[in-house]
Amino acid sequence: MAADGTPLYAPNGKPRVTSEPLGANFVIDGYAVTYTAGVTWKFLLGFDPDGGLTLYHLRYVLPPSRAHPQGKEEQYLFRAYIPDFGTDYSASNL
């Protein structure tokens, strides 16, 4: 990158255009993410210097029923690391 902040190489290729005519199927509220893809998933995002991107409290919401009119939330995973996503391998504490 040049001193003035411009990239050294010009971008090439076609620009990417994203279209969601029905709206986004996810909501981000701070660290909390709600993602609907047939089933609604809920999780918290975090970052660990050694583990990389971390998903916490991953759960899904079952469809509504008589017993659970709002849908029943089921725990799926407590913590999941997505390694190699911004990790610092030069850390001396590894």
From TrEMBL:
Entries under InterPro entries matching the protein: Cu_amine_oxidase_C_sf
GO terms for MF: copper ion binding; primary methylamine oxidase activity; quinone binding
GO-annotated biological processes: amine metabolic process
Matches recorded under Gene3D superfamilies: Copper amine oxidase, catalytic domain
Name of this protein: Amine oxidase
Organism: Calcidiscus leptoporus
Lineage, highest ranks first: Eukaryota, Haptista, Haptophyta, Prymnesiophyceae, Coccolithales
